[in-house]
Amino acid sequence: MKVLAIDPGYGRCGVAVVEKENGKENLLYSACIETHAKTDFPERLGMIVRKCEQIVKTYEPNSMALERLYFTSNHKTAMKVAEVRGALIAVAAKFDIGIFEYTPSQVKSAVAGWGNADKNQIAKMLHSLMKIKRSIKYDDEYDAIAIGVTHLACSQNSENS
Q: InterPro entries given for it (predicted)?
């Protein structure tokens, strides 16, 4: 099983391709897609979509896992992130990839065993679960990897039920 996992955003969008092989999680790819704040939103959205389509073509994932949107006090930002999620869901539909969503607490529980784990605990646990061969600059990328690990754990559990 191979999953394209995404921490949606339009300034920084974390992406990762994670697979489970022989009972072990493997990180095949991860990055943070960055767009410039002075670029018009439709162009930023297009950049994210094109990069995700390229990742799908390269890695051929079986599923896409996204962080479920939760509303913050900044509704304008939440609406833009919702638009990014919609565009990413359209990418999954275009390539006939199943879509799965996870809340931040589900991700924290699956990766660190505790729904209130902080970013450092998540990053440390990810390094113990799999080989991450390069330095990761932004939490968005760790978040995407964690979402992928969560999906692999949840889909494994549903297969064993």
A: RNaseH-like_sf, RNaseH_sf, X-over_junc_endoDNase_RuvC
